[in-house]
Design goal:
CATH superfamily of one domain: P-loop containing nucleotide triphosphate hydrolases
CATH architecture of one domain: 3-Layer(aba) Sandwich
Strand order of the largest sheet: 7-14-13-8-12-9-11-10
CATH class of one domain: Alpha Beta
Structural class: alpha/beta
Number of strands: 14
Strand content: 5-15%
Number of helices: 33
Distance between the termini: 58 Å
C-alpha cells in the first residue's frame, strides 16, 4: 500500500507542468521571494561582521643535497625544490597545537576580545584559533602548483585578526629555525653509521655466497647453473633406453626363431624358408660372420679376384636375398599357397641354379657349403650372445645411473641453499638502499634544516568585512525564498483536486470540450417582450439568438453534428456528475439551437425524480415519459409543442416511485426507437451520474453521451467517479460542455488559464461578426410557428 502511494505521488509530481504551475501559483513565488529577502535583510543587520586577514609564505629547500651526502654544495645551497608531501607537512605544522600553543607563550593573545570571550565560555583557546584558521597551498590559475602556503584567520576585529595571524607565523618560523642548527651533523652521523653497518652486513653475505659457490660441484654460466652430474645422468638414461630397446629386440627375434625351430623339429625344411626368417640387416650380419670364419679363400675377397664372375655372383646373390624377403612378406599377407608365392619360388630356384652354374671352380672345391638350417642355428647363437651382453650392460648402466642421480640430488639441494644465501644478500642490499632513501627523507625535525620560510604577504587589518556580504546574502535569501515559494506552490498544486486546464479535463474524461458556457447574468440580459413568453429567462438561445451566449451553444451544436456525421437521426443524452451543474439548461438551449437549423427536435425529460424541462418551456406536462412507460397513454399524446419552432418536449409526466424500474424496461428502448423515426434529433435530459443509477440505464440506448461539468464546483474526483460509471457499462462520452465559466473567479480553481484564442474567440470576435437585430421586434409576430405533432 505504501509503495503504491509513493508511486502515485511520484507520477503526480512528474505530471506537473512547471510553466503552468508557475503561472497559477505565482503569488506563492512572489510571497516566498519577499519572505526570503526579508530574512536576508534581517540576517544582514543582525549578524556581527567578521574580518579575514591573510598571509602568504614561500617555502624553499636550501639543503636538499645534505640529506643524501651529509654535505651541501653550491648548486643546492639556495635550492627551491620541495616535494608535495613536505609542503603538506608544513601545512599541518602551521595548524598544529604546538605552534599555536607557542604563539600564546610569546604574545598577549589571551587579551584579545574574541579569545578572551571564548576562554570565559569555557572553550580551549587553541581549539578556538584552529576553528577560525585555514591554511591552503598553491596559488591561483597557472600558479596552482606554486610552493606557497596561504593562511587566513577570521575574527570580529580586523586588527585582532592581523595580530593573531602574525603571532602564529612568528611561532612557526621560530620552530623551523630552532631545528636547523644541529640537523646537518646529526644527519651526517646517521648516514655514516647506517652506511658502515650495512656495508659490514653486505660484505659478510657476499663472502658466504662466494664460498658456497666454490664448494658446489657445479659451474655457473651467468644466472644459469651447469650441473655435470645431471648431464651425465641424462647421457646414461639415453644409453640405457637404447640398450633396453636392443635387448628387447634381440629377445623377441630369438623367441621367434626358437618357436620356429621347435615347431618344425627334425622335419626337412627348405633352406629358403629358414633364411626367410632373417631380415636384410640380420642377413648382412650373418654374411660378415661367415666371411670372417671361412678365411680369405672362401670369402668375397677371393671372388673379387675374378671381376666378372664375382660381380655376377654378387648381383644374383643380392637379388636372391630380396626375393627371399619378398617371399616371407607374401606368406605373411596371403598364406603359403598363394599363386604369387609360387611365382616367387620359381624365380628363386632360377637364380639359385644360375649361381650354382657360375660358381668359381677353386672356391667350389674348397668351400664347405652351409645350409639354411645351419645359418639359422649360427644366427641363434649370435642372438643368445647379444641377449647376454645387453643384460649385463643394462645392469651396469642402472647402477651407474643411480649413483649419478644421488649426486645430482645433492647438487640440487646445494643449489637451493645457494638461492637462500643469495636472497639473504639481496635483502641486505635492499635494506641498505632503503636506509639511504629514508635518510634522504629525514623525519619532521631533520627536514626543516634545509627549508626557508619567507613571508610574501604580511598580515594586515582588512578594510571590509568578510561576512556577511549584502549581495551574497540577498541572492541566497532570494533563492531560498523562491525555493520555499515553489515548495508551497507544488504542495498546493498536488493537493488541488480541481482541473488544471482544458487538456487535463479532456484527458480525464476521454472526450473533447465542445463549448465553454459562461455564467449568465440574467438581470442584465435584455429579453424582448419578457411578459409575452412562457420560456424561462435561462433559454438565451431563444430570447437572444444573436448574443455571444447563444453563439456558444451553436458552436457546441456544430461540433456534435460533426462528430455524428452519417447518422440521419441523432439520439443524444446529457448528464452531469452532480445536481446543479446546469445540464437541463444546457440541453434545453442546445435543443433550441438544433431546432433553429430546421430540424425536428424532441427533448425528453428522463429525470423522473427532479424534472425541470416542463418549467423551462412553460408546458403543463400532465402526460409524459412516465405515463408512456406505464402504458397509460400513447407516445403522441405525451409530446407537447413549445413556442420554439420545430422543438417538441416530452416532460417527465406523472410522478412515480419506481423511476429506475420504468427506465430499465424494454418499453423505454421502444420509445427511443419510435422517437428516432419521427424526429431528426432526440435529446434526453438524464439525472446526475453520482446521484442515481438512471443515466447508466439510458446511456447504452443512445448514440452518444454528453457530460456537462461545472469546473468551479466539481473537482477531479467526482468527475473521475462519473466517467468510471460510464466506462463500467462500456460507454464513452463523445463530448464535454464546460458550464458556468466565470472569468473572474476561475483562476482560483486552477482552471481557465487559457490564451485568448483558446475557446474564447466567441466573446472576443462576436461584436465584429454578429448579425444585427431588427430595430423593433413584434413579439407576437416573432413567435415561432407551432408545428403539429406528427409521430
Amino acid at each position: 500500500m505504501t509503495s503504491s502511494a509513493t508511486t502515485t505521488g511520484q507520477n503526480a509530481i512528474a505530471a506537473v507542468d512547471v510553466f503552468k504551475m508557475s503561472s497559477r501559483r505565482w503569488p506563492c513565488l512572489v510571497l516566498g521571494a519577499i519572505v526570503g529577502i526579508a530574512f536576508a535583510a534581517l540576517y544582514q543587520y543582525s549578524t556581527t561582521p567578521t574580518y579575514q586577514s591573510r598571509i602568504e609564505i614561500l617555502i624553499g629547500q636550501r639543503s636538499s643535497e645534505l640529506a643524501i651526502s651529509g654535505t651541501m654544495s653550491n648548486a643546492h645551497a639556495s635550492g627551491d625544490v620541495i616535494h608535495e608531501d613536505q609542503l603538506a607537512t608544513h601545512m599541518q605544522l602551521l595548524m598544529s597545537r604546538r605552534i599555536i600553543g607557542n604563539a600564546f607563550k610569546g604574545s598577549n593573545l589571551k587579551e584579545i576580545a574574541s579569545i578572551s570571550k571564548a576562554i570565559s565560555e569555557g572553550q580551549n583557546p587553541v581549539d578556538f584559533i584552529i576553528e577560525h584558521l585555514e591554511v591552503v597551498r598553491g596559488g591561483e590559475g597557472s600558479a596552482e602548483n606554486a610552493m606557497v602556503l596561504s593562511a587566513t584567520y577570521i575574527d570580529p576585529s580586523p586588527n585582532d585578526a592581523a595580530v593573531i595571524l602574525g603571532a602564529l607565523f612568528e611561532s612557526y618560523q621560530e620552530y623551523v629555525e630552532s631545528h636547523s642548527k644541529n640537523t646537518s651533523e646529526e644527519a651526517a652521523k646517521l648516514i655514516d653509521s647506517a652506511r658502515i653497518e650495512n656495508e659490514i652486513e653486505l660484505v659478510q653475505a657476499d663472502k658466504e655466497y662466494r664460498a658456497f659457490i666454490q664448494s658446489v660441484p657445479a659451474l655457473l654460466e651467468g644466472e644459469r647453473v651447469r650441473d655435470i652430474h645431471k648431464n651425465r645422468l641424462d647421457t646414461l638414461e639415453t644409453e640405457l633406453n637404447e640398450v633396453r630397446a636392443r635387448f628387447v629386440e634381440a629377445k623377441s627375434r630369438l623367441s621367434v626363431i626358437k618357436t620356429y625351430l621347435d615347431k618344425n623339429g627334425d622335419e626337412v625344411v627348405d633352406d629358403m624358408d629358414n633364411l626367410a626368417l632373417l631380415s636384410q640387416k640380420e642377413t648382412e650380419r650373418l654374411k660378415l660372420f661367415l666371411d670372417v670364419s671361412r678365411g680369405g679363400t672362401q670369402s668375397e675377397a677371393f671372388a673379387a679376384e675374378q671381376p666378372v664372375r664375382a660381380e655376377a655372383a654378387r648381383t644374383q646373390y643380392n637379388r636372391l636375398l630380396d626375393l627371399l624377403q619378398k617371399q616371407q612378406t607374401l606368406i605373411d599377407l596371403y598364406g603359403g599357397n598363394h599363386p604369387l608365392i609360387e611365382v616367387n619360388r620359381l624365380e628363386i630356384k632360377v637364380i639359385q641354379d644360375f649361381i650354382a652354374a657360375n660358381a668359381p671352380a677353386e672356391a667350389a672345391s674348397t668351400v664347405k657349403k652351409l645350409d639354411g638350417k645351419g645359418m639359422l642355428s649360427t644366427f641363434t647363437r649370435l642372438l643368445q650372445n647379444d641377449v647376454a651382453e645387453f643384460e649385463i650392460r643394462e645392469k651396469l648402466l642402472v647402477e651407474k645411473s643411480s649413483l649419478e642421480l644421488i649426486a645430482a640430488k645433492e647438487v640440487e639441494n646445494s643449489f637451493l641453499e645457494g638461492n637462500a644465501k643469495k636472497a639473504k644478500l639481496l635483502r641486505a642490499q635492499a635494506r641498505y638502499d632503503e636506509v639511504i632513501r629514508r635518510l634522504q627523507e629525514l623525519n619532521l625535525a631533520g627536514s626543516y634544516a634545509g627549508f626557508s620560510t619567507d613571508l610574501l604577504a604580511s598580515p594586515e587589518p582588512p578594510s571590509s568585512p568578510n561576512w556577511p556580504k549584502l549581495p551574497i546574502v540577498a541572492v541566497i535569501g532570494l533563492l531560498a525564498g523562491l525555493f520555499l515559494g515553489a515548495a508551497v506552490g507544488l504542495t498546493a498544486e498536488l493537493l488541488d483536486s480541481t482541473f488544471q486546464d482544458v487538456d487535463d479535463l479532456e484527458a480525464t474524461l476521454g472526450a473533447a470540450a465542445v463549448a465553454h458556457v459562461p455564467r449568465f447574468d440574467f438581470r442584465n440580459l435584455k429579453i424582448p417582450g419578457p411578459d409575452k413568453t412562457v420560456l424561462s429567462r435561462s433559454l438565451v438561445v431563444a430570447h437572444c439568438p444573436r448574443s455571444s451566449e447563444a453563439e456558444v451553444y451553436r458552436v457546441a451544436r456544430t461540433s456534435l453534428l460533426i462528430k455524428l456525421t452519417g447518422n440521419a437521426h441523432i439520439v443524444l443524452m446529457m448528464t452531469s456528475p452532480h445536481p446543479g451543474d446546469g445540464k437541463s439548461t444546457t440541453i434545453s438551449n442546445l435543443a433550441i439551437s438544433f431546432a433553429q437549423t430546421g430540424r425536428r427536435v424532441l427533448l425528453i425529460d428522463s429525470d423522473l425524480r427532479r424534472p425541470v424541462i416542463a418549467s423551462l418551456f412553460g408546458v403543463e406536462g400532465k402526460l409524459g415519459l412516465a405515463d408512456v412507460l406505464q402504458r397509460k397513454c400513447e407516445l403522441s399524446k405525451a409530446v407537447s409543442k413549445t413556442e420554439v419552432s420545430n422543438l417538441f418536449v416530452m416532460t417527465h409526466g406523472t410522478d412515480t416511485s419506481v423511476p429506475a424500474e420504468l427506465l430499465q424496461s424494454n418499453l423505454m428502448r421502444q420509445v427511443i426507437q419510435a422517437a428516432r423515426k419521427s424526429f431528426d434529433v432526440v435529446l434526453i435530459d438524464a439525472p446526475p451520474l453520482l446521484a442515481v443509477a438512471d443515466p447508466a440505464i439510458v446511456a447504452p440506448m443512445v448514440d452518444g453521451v454528453v457530460i456537462t461539468v461545472r469546473v468551479c464546483k466539481n473537482g477531479r474526483r467526482p468527475v473521475e467517479r462519473s466517467i468510471k460509471i460510464l466506462r463500467e457499462i462500456g460507454v464513452t462520452p463523445i463530448a464535454v460542455v464546460v458550464n458556468g465559466v466565470d472569468r473572474k473567479r476561475v483562476a482560483s480553481y486552477g482552471y481557465g488559464h487559457q490564451r485568448p484564442e483558446e475557446y474564447g474567440y466567441v466573446a472576443q470576435y462576436h461584436r465584429k461578426y454578429a448579425a444585427k437585430e431588427p430595430p423593433s421586434v413584434d413579439v407576437e409576430h416573432a413567435q415561432p410557428h407551432r408545428n403539429e405533432v406528427i409521430l
